[in-house]
Amino acid sequence: MQKTILIVDDALSVRGLLKMTLEGSGYKVAEACDGKDALNKVSTLKSLHLIFVDLYMPNMGGMEFIKALKASPKHKFIPIVVLTKESDPAMKREGQAAGAKAWVVKPFKPETIVNVVQKIIG
Q1: The domain containing residue 95 runs over which residues?
Q2: Are 69 and 47 in contact (CB under 8 A)?
Q3: % the chain with pLDDT above 90
Q4: Which pLDDT score, from 0 to 100, does residue 1 have?
Q5: pLDDT at residue 46 in the model
Q6: What are the residues facing 103 on neighbouring strands?
Q7: CA 68 to CA 90: how far, in whole Å?
Q8: pLDDT tens track for 28-80
């Protein structure tokens, strides 16, 4: 069964690069442009195995999205990877406390993304 990954980022270029990288590694990819869009997508996707989320987006940022998703009994076990330009240790701790499984700083190498995904969902 092909595993599905949701990419949540307001930058179309980042979503495109991630999508190309993940689909090239055999994953199915869905996209959302912000946290609100992502919450809608999560509720409509049949199965979801992992989410990449940026922190700074319009409408609903990544941290708010993580907290909202983790508050949902149906979706709280979906692993989340924060993908952001933010490298502040305090923000990383806040993300971990909110429920993020991993933290990747932009710019990233495609092989880093694939390695993180394989470690988390295989």
Answers
A1: 4-121
A2: no
A3: 95
A4: 77
A5: 87
A6: 82
A7: 20
A8: 999 999 999 999 999 999 899 999 999 999 999 999 999 999 999 999 999 99
What is the dihedral sign for C-alpha 29, 117, 40, 87? negative
What's the total number of domains in the chain?
Answer: 1
CATH number of the domain bearing residue 15: 3.40.50.2300
**HEC readout, 78-120:** CCEEEEECCCCHHHHHHHHHHCCCEEEECCCCHHHHHHHHHHH
Q: How many residues in the chain?
A: 122
SS3 of 14, please? helix
What whole-number distance in Å separates Cα of residue 36 and Cα of residue 53?
12
Q: In 3-state terms, what secondary structure has residue 6?
A: strand
Residues 34 and 57: beta-carbon distance below 8 Å: yes
